[in-house]
Each structure stands twice: as structure tokens, then as C-alpha cells.
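Quick entry between incubations.
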Amino acid sequence: MKKSFVFSGSGGQGIMSAGIMLAHTAIDMNKHSTYLPEYGPEQRGGSAKCTVIISDGEIISPLTKKCDNLIVMNEQAYAKFGDSVKEGGLLVLNSSRIKEEITREDVKVLAVPVDDIALELGNVKAANIVLIGALIGATDVVSKDAFVASLEEKFKTKKPEILELNLKALEKGIEFGKAAK
Amino acid sequence: MEKRFMKGCEAIAEAAVRGGCRFFAGYPITPQNEIPEYLSWRLPEVGGAFVQGESEVASINMVYGAAATGKRALTSSSGPGISLKAEGISYLASAQLPAVIVNISRGGPGLGSIQPAQSDYLQATKALGHGGFRAMVFAPATLQEAVDLTYNAWEYAERDRGPVLILMDGCLGAIMEEVELPPMKELKIENTEDWDLSRANGRTDAHMITPILPEPALEMLNRAKGMVYNMMWPMDAKAEEYMLDDAEYVVVAYGIAARVAKEAINELRAKGVKIGMIRPITLYPFPKSIENLDYSKVKGIIDIEMTIPAQMRDDIELQVKGRCPVHEYGRSGGMLLDDEGVYNAIAEITGGGN
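Done. Structure below.
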């Protein structure tokens, strides 16, 4: 099985680190994975996109035009990449920022107010983890335990509150994802 | 072997260190900045030296200096920066000093685009600098291959006494995938005696700056180099040959383009299209695989590159010799190849798979 994920938004929304963490977790689970970032010359605020491919077998081409799962963090990203999710695929969107009506009827739509949830938990920076939670809840792409282990590894040098916040964010996201399954 | 999930540029940098590189000088340019960034902390860990030069010209000349002291030296850049280094690379060739140069290529010409492209094939294989020297050019398609080729690049540079180029596009520079890292090399110092100035021991044939040679001596040097390029290097040519046995169509592609094409080939094979691929791993010496195809079966060659117009085509045509049509498909300017575009292009040319 081979699945592609495109994360898109703007610089600072945690798009790239969400992609890397997902790919890393897949590797930890003995799957194959590639992560490809794409960004413009801006240091901050420009458009950010990354493609993660997770597969049980060797990944030949890391470049794909259409993806199985599209994750969009803002309206600009939706306008730019909304068409790139395959028919029957999954569209996960940040409904805290994307207010427009989603016109595509051939994909499953999972709207999660990730910014609001993260803010409620105490820090909007955890929005990307809520998003990954939703993805895990809705697709079983990686196991929750494996992702928790990645989070623990990533934040091991930081204050324990940061890990705690991210674990809560993950849990909230998974709830949303499961509800949509 | 040690497995790691690494970014392309960092994998090359680590492989260089493990392959014995102890000096780096370079000047920043996207999309290769992760190479100097990584080496800035990694080289001091192993007793090496890292310099961010004030320019590309200064950096390539520092590499010249380091190479002249017997150290394994590296520089990296992207298209526009490689153009600036061209003079120094030619001087390295003239002084017969071993060094490795990495080009993580982007859209061109000119300042071009910071996004990935395979737009430096001609520069890499035909004229990396003035004066008619040649450099071996390695073109990895996966990060594992990038690690393996970089790790062994200095062996070629030292054997043939000249610059070696590793050419990889910005996609492979930025992508992360799993690699197995080889162990740290133990270097034998006695190998360097011929060119290491610090070990010249009173010999007068060792120079830091190559003088203007008397014409007959320069001709003799060029003759000797010509023998190396024409007689020895063909044996070092490498290519991956994929599903050629019954192939009616053969894709020729290198690096990232070959990976996208291979996926399309697998899909087309599943639909009964007799198609295979030749993937040059050394772009110079250019492998002879195309010349030796069975043209009673092959109906067409398809050159796929992430650049427009295709640059490898001349080398392909020299081997096809008019025995079948040569087609080309590509994207350019920082627009990436993708699975759908490559599949559709091949399907249209072969008339199959629809």
C-alpha cells in the first residue's frame, strides 16, 4: 500500500514539521517514506507545502501530481491545491481559517478548527499536531503509539509542559478524526 | 551499517566526511545550503576545516589550496555558483589536483529559479570550465546512491588527478529518505605524495601555482589526459538497465527524472506496453548502453529530463545513429516532473496504456 499526503499552508503554521514528524513515525514503524518540502524565497509567511509518501514497499517516484490526502491550513492553500486531491481521497482542512464552502463532492471532507482547538489548549503552535491527530484518527496512517513516541523524542529536551500540550492536541485531533471515519 | 532518515544535502555532506573529506569552502546559494550548514559543525568534529568563503571564486581557490596539501577537499553550489567556480575548476584540472564538486541544480539559465531542475547537464558534461578538460560526472537518483557515489568520489579524483562532479537536482537535495551510512574511511597518507606540496621533499616539480607551460609540455599533458578520458574512463561508465530484454520503447533518464519515469514504466508494463529504461549513473563517461540496443526491436527512444529543451539528447543521438526516432519530454524552469505528466507523455508516444 502506498499513500501520499500533501500538507499546505503558509510559513510558520508548522506544515513542514508536521510532514517530517509523520514521515519519521512511518520509518519508525518500519515502513518506507519520503518527505519533500517546497517553499518560496520568503523567510516567513510565504506559501509552504510538503509531500509525504508512506509505503509498505520501496518508493520509486517521490513526485506525484495528485495526492490521496490533502491537508490545508488556510484559504490560499486551498485555492492553490484544492484540486490536487484524488477522487475518493481525503481533504482535511483548518476550519478556523477556511470559511468558504467546499465545492468538491468527490472527496471526503474533514473540517477541524485546529487553530481554535490549539488556542483553547494554550498555544496555537500546537495546531499542526491537532491536524496530525485528525489524520491519524481518520486514516490509521500511523499508529497513535508510534506518533506519541516521536513526539516524546522531539520534545525530550524541552519543558515537560510542551510535550503535555502536544499530547493533548494529538488526542483532540484523533477525536475529531475518528468522528469523521 | 547505520540507517538514518536524512535530507539529500545532509546525506551527501555526511557521506563526504565518511569518505575522508576534511576541508570545505563554499558560498551560500539555494538549494544546496544544507550542505555547508551541516559541514560547518560536522567537519570540526572530525578535525577538518569549514570555511564560508567571501565568494564562489574564493571558495573554489581555497579548495585548490587544500587539495594541494593532500587533503580531501569539497565545494558545493548550484548552477549560477558553479558558473562562477568554472575558472577555478579548470585550474584544478590544469594543476592535476583531486577535488570533489557538488552541484545541486535549479532552474536556469541566468539567476533562473530556486526551484529544482536538471538544467546543468551540458555545463557538467561538456565544459565545466575552459580549456578542454573533462571531469567525471556522477548523477545519483536516490539518496542511497548519492551517499555511495560521494563516499567513493575522491578515489576517482585521486586516481585520475582532477576534479569530479556530483550532479543532483534540488528535489533530491531537499528530499528526506532513509539511507544506510558507510563507516568512516581510514585514509592512507602515502597515496598523496605525488601532489601534496607539504611532502614534496625538495622536489622541484611540485608547484602551488601552475606556470605557463612550454607548449610541447602542455601538449604532452593534454595528450596524456586524452588517453585517460578515452581509454580508461569508458570502463568506469555506469548505467542501470531496466526491462530492456523485449523493449520496443526505451526511456533514457537520469536522477529524479528516472525515478518518475520508472513508476510510469511499471504502470505501462502492467498494461502490456513493452517499455524499458536506461538510467545513466555516470553522465560523463556516458554509458554505451544505448548504442548496443537491438534496433530491430526498438521503435523509439524517449529522453525524459527536468529541463526544456532536453540536454542529454545529443549524447543519445550519437549512439542511436538514426536507427530509430528520439522523442523528448520534460518540464523546466523549476516546474517539476510528475507521475501523471510523464505517464501521459510516454503513453502518447508509444500509443499504448490508454
